[in-house]
Every structure is written in structure tokens, then in C-alpha cells.
Amino acid sequence: MAKISSLKARPILDSRGSWTVEVYLKLNDGRVFKASVPRGKSVGSYEASYVPVEAAIKNIQEKIAPKLRGLTATNQKVIDNILNKIDGTPTKRKLGANSTLAVSIAVAKAGAGDSRKPLWKHLRSLGNFKNTGDCPRLFMNVVNGGLHAGNNLDFQEYLVIPKTKSIRESITVGTKFYDALRKYLVKLKGETSSNTGDEGGFAPNFKDNLEPFSILKKVAQLTRLETKVDFGMDAAASDVTLSKNKLKSIYKKLGRFKNFIYLEDPFSEDEFKSFADLRNSLGESLLIAGDDLTVTNLIRMEKAYKNKSVNSIIIKPNQIGTVTEAIEAVKLAKSFGWKVIA
What we know:
This protein is of the alpha/beta class and 342 residues long. It folds into 2 domains: 4-126, 2-Layer Sandwich (Enolase-like, domain 1), CATH 3.30.390; 140-341, Enolase-like C-terminal domain (TIM Barrel). It is 41% helix and 16% strand. It has helices spanning 53-68, 76-87, 97-115, 119-126, 167-189, 211-222, 244-255, 272-282, 298-306, 317-320, 323-336; strands at 4-13, 19-27, 32-36, 140-144, 157-162, 229-234, 260-264, 287-290, 312-314, 339-341. Strands 4-5-6-7-8-9-10 form a 7-stranded mixed beta sheet. The chain has a 3-stranded antiparallel beta sheet with strand order 1-2-3, covered by helices on one side. Helix 9 links the parallel strand 8 and strand 9 (312-314). The chain is globular, with a radius of gyration of 21 Å.
């Protein structure tokens, strides 16, 4: 088994043009593995802390690297526990989750390489997850609003979710739908409606928060993909100023919308009871997901389960700071019977 010989870090630009950190992990056999960390634009207040990029680089090279040198790269849990011990805070406040996660992912990649497995198989073995044979469903963000766009939509993401038997077919359906949506919006609202938001979805102004779904339904009909797609939305309601009653009214209408199967963060991040009430009123056929509510955090997940707030969850390693903790969150979610979106 190869061992870690060095860790180096440098600043890089992410997809938004913001600075983040990239780690280079070198094994004693000369192989090098690299990893970088993302951060969402709308960040839940309970997520693990980030530190400035230069501080993260210093932490990695001066505080973390000496502790990991000589350790076997396949010992993911041991190494992640060391990262948590060095930091010593529940929110990664000292080292920063951008420091710990960049190192943790680099270790996972090195462990996969040393085990001669693709990364996804290595992660599956780390969590002792069974291969169900099911094809993951892709959640494609096709209309942007909220903090992700400069338009008049309150909600952040309008999603198309292909129903297919393979990833290849899902991508084919999704790209066909996206191109047809662009053409339809240009015809309906003019050339500037093809401008995109923060995550690549179209971002024109709309009559109201529900009009995008009427348009998505129309595009599905025009492309003859009605039986091939479902729809969903990330409300990101912690950043929405609408009243709770107004939100409930909108969600009630969405619950009657054909093929609408997924609603993420319908209320702000502390509204466990409001999540539960909505879940109860709309039924279990609709996935009510926690993101800012749960932040890949076992304690908040336990609270959501106790309150019956959600039946699905977003898993984001950058919210918690290590690969091991993200895996533990997936395992807990599965024990609750929740659907996992990652």
C-alpha cells in the first residue's frame, strides 16, 4: 500500500470565477492526485465554515501535511478523523472546510488509485453500500431564479428530471429538452430570454413563479417527451421574502401539477415543522428534500427525521467537510428510508 509523501496546495478559480483551493497529494511511489473544493452561492448558516483561500493553503501545508505524511492513502476514515482532531471544532472553524475537504477528496482519489478502482467504486466500498443496479436520475437545472439570476423569479432552480434506463439516455433527453426550451423561450419572450443564470439555466422574467412550469410542460409536449420527464424545484426559501402563507399557496398548486415530483427547501432552514406540515398535506409521492435544513449534518438530520420534516436529502460534502462524514450522512439517510440526491 502506497503512503502519503507530501501535500501541497495552491489557489485556483472555480466555475464562478471565485478563488478556491486545490490540493496535490503525492504518494511515495510518485503518483500524484489532486482535488479542489466548490462552494454554493446560497449557503446555509449551519454549513461547515470556510476560511480565506490563503489561510486554507497555509493550514494544509503547515498544519495538515505534517500529520498525514507516511499514512496509507486507503485509510480514509483514519485520515478524516485526524483532520477533525486537528481542527477540534464541530464546524471546521479553525482549519476551514475548504482545507479539510480538499485534502479528504485527494485522499479518496489516492485511495481509489492505490486500490485500482474507479473513484465511485472506492467510495461505495468505503461506505459498504450495495450495488442496487438502479440508474441514478439526473436533476437538470433549466431555469434559474432567486440568488442564481437577476430576474423576477423568487425561486432558485426549476428542474427537469429525465425518466430513463441509462445515464446516456438521460443526457440525451435533457439536452434535447434544454435546446427546445431555449428556442421556445426566444420565440415567446425574445432573444434575451436565452441569457442564462448562475448555474446555466435560462433566466428571463416571467409572469409569476409558476409560469416556468407551464412553459416546461408545453416544451415537453412539443418535443414528445411528456412520458420521459418529471419536474422539480429548489425553492431555496431561506433566501425568499414571500410570506409563509404565500409559499404554502404556491406549493399547493405545484402539488397538483402533473409530473411534479420534487421540492427542495420549501421553507427557511429552521422551519422543521413547516416542512413536516407540507409533507403531510402533499403526500409521500412528492419528494420533500432538505438542503439548508439538513446541511449533510447528522444532528440536523436526526432532528428532521424526528419531526418527519423530509423524505429526501441533498448530500454535499462541502457542507460538512470530509468524505467520511458525507458517507456517514448517506448511511443515516438510507436508514431513515430517505431518497439521496448528491
